[in-house]
Amino acid sequence: MSNPFGTIPDEAILEGTATDAYFDRTRTTLEYAGKNPHVVAEVTADQFPTGSFDVVTGVKDVATLFEGRAVDVDALPDGLLFDGGPVMRIEGPYLEFAELETSLLGFLSQPSGFATAALEARLAAPESTVLSFGARHVHPSIAATVERAALLAGLDGFSHVAAGELLGREAGGTMPHALMFCFGEGNQAEAWATFDEAVPEDVPRIALADTFWDEKSESLLAAETLGEDLDGVRIDTTGSRRGDFRHIIREVRWELDVRGYEDVAIFCSGGLGPDSIRELRDIADGFGVGSHITGADSVDFSLDIVEIAGEPISKRGKLSGVKEVYRTEAGGHHVALADRDAPDDATPLFEPLVRDGELVREFDLDEASERCLADAEAVGFADT
Ligand SMILES: O=P(O)(O)OC[C@H]1C[C@H](OP(=O)(O)OP(=O)(O)O)[C@H](O)[C@@H]1O
Ligand SMILES: [Zn+2]
Question: How far apart are CA 126 and CA 156, in angstroms?
Answer without folding.
Answer: 10
